[in-house]
Amino acid sequence: MLLAIDTSAGTSTAVFDGEKLLGFVEHDDPFGHAENIGNAIAEVMANAGITASEVTAVAIGRGPAPYTGLRVGMAAGASFAMALGIPLHSIMNLDAVALSHGQAKILVSSDAKRKELFVATYDQGKRVFGPAVLKPEELGKFGGFAQVEGKCNAELVGRYALWAQASGIDLSDSSALYLRSPDVAPSAGKRVTG
Amino acid sequence: MEFLQLGKEHLTTVMDLEQKLFPDDAWSSASMAAELDASHTYYLGIFDTELIGYAGLSTPDGSFSSDIQTIGIAADKRGQGLGRKLMQHLIEKAGQLGSEQLMLEVRADNQAAIALYLDLGFVQIDLRKRYYQPAGVDALIMRLAIRQPIVLGIESTCDETGVGIVQGNRLLANALHSSMDEHSKYGGVVPEVAARAHLEAIRPTLEKALAEAKLSMTDIDAIAVANGPGLAGALMVGIGAAKGLALAHNKPLYAVNHLVGHVGADVLERGAVELPTIALLVSGGHTSLLLVRQLLNDVELLGETIDDAAGEAFDKVARVLGLPYPGGPQIDKLAAVGTANIRFPRGLTLPKDMEKHRYDFSFSGLKTAVARHVEKAQDAGEEFSKADVAASFREAVVDVLLTKAINACKDFGVNRLLLGGGVVANARLREEAQKRCDANGIELRIPRFQLCTDNGAMIAALGSQLVMAGREPSGMGFGSESTLEVTQVQTP
Q1: Which is deepest, A143, B310, B436, B438, by most CB within 10 Å?
Q2: Average pLDDT over every residue of B281-289
Q3: Which among A73, A176, A184 has the least Cβ separation from residue B186?
Q4: For residue A66, is the peptide bond before it cis, meaning its omega torsion is within 30 degrees of 0?
Q5: By CA distance, what is B238's nearest residue in A?
């Protein structure tokens, strides 16, 4: 029984029994991740008719995505897995979206705030570029790639985890996929007198 | 029929019944008065228009054990289960006070009482021959084990990822991961850097705390998490982790106030926070003066900084003096070889400020004054002693902090001062606090340093107090509250 958690956009959760989706919950609020994460996990387990002790693995989205919200789902998934001593699978969100488009030649992008996009491109089911942060006008260079909205959710994260495990792909890196450094520069200190 | 806590005002009534119940060996009126009045005792009476029974509990400070001091029911009121009810109240009270066992002694010939105690779960652990004189009756020593809740607390309000585990009032683990080094190149805490560090550190810190306590998650009875005040992005990591943990094993979850946690830390030092107390919490993020009448119900913010926190002022002045971050230890070290011979301003201490901001602090002007002093000397190419500047600055901070804290003690007639927060590491602050408290007849409490800085154990301790008091857990819907008021000890 796989519990998938994703807070890359809203807050969503899913439960899979094998390939079968038993429950899916989504709170669309793009800011209330800390508020919604607990209820989203509790609700999806109730919808699926399972208890936490039946969960055998956890999958989380590790970005790229707006990080403040993303970290909430990652922290919840990591602690849930630790508490039960079960595996944690960490999924690159754009890969999860791309998988749902099969073999198509696509460019997957999602909002990176500050008028920028998180971008990756795929061909024949393989990532050929990215993930990277680009300005919208930079997408012109990817001629021939169909543009796909990259909004992810727990169902896509869960499906990717199941597929990746079957394909022998390593999902053990549970760090967030940061594509920007923290927005600060060391300050030299200012004079107070003129 | 009514159960009422007894105080010294009930002395005559209690002594009347005491002498009837124990004609051979009644306590003296003086002993009873001391018992009824003591801060570590709890006496409960049953009234049916008049007093018909009473019992007393003693829980010495810093002890994890309570004693039943006495129990008695008027002869014509026995056989109605009143003794059992009194005992049940005292057992519950002992549990709330954090006791892990309850002891009593009983006459070996008092079969009814022994049967009651056995039924309540007490076991005989000793026999004292001819303990009761002059009759020469043996005493059975009996013990009831009380299992206190094991609470895991998560702290992520600023740059420390803390996970603590307590059982009742007993500290089992206090694991910490600090991202302080990562902030040093920026000269202060950077929220995004802190939040990133929390996510990386949370799992290893949880595992470290469980290993330190030699427990697994299934042993944990409840989870507590600080949901504010603090940095939103940092808080959210701790909240996410706490909710995940709570749901994995269906444990109750308590969202608690970080600042009140600093006050609650003292239960881990001596089994209780002596109240009421004034609390001065000084760190890189806070400079707050609190009046705590009751830890869980009555905490009042008297004042706080209106600009920089005291710890922040240390960091900024350290930078002016060319010292690395964090500034506190650096300035403390340098100041030790300097003389406080420069009079820097004490913020918000002028008469007009003391009207409006009696318990508030301001350190921004002080920092600027130090910078001016240094720049002026440097521009003039004059030699100046960095050590003297450091000592004078430190003296100004310590003076204003303690002047206002001692004022609060005097104004509210509270003879206790509790210090908390990372700036308590400052040797001069501790030394001067002791001196001024001694001079004013104020008891100074400073928990050990690991419990003064941000830590998970204090969050667990406050959570544990809530569990022991029988509070309902928080719901699953709480979020981060950057500016959480100290009056909100628990977020529902």
Answers
A1: B310
A2: 94
A3: A184
A4: no
A5: A75
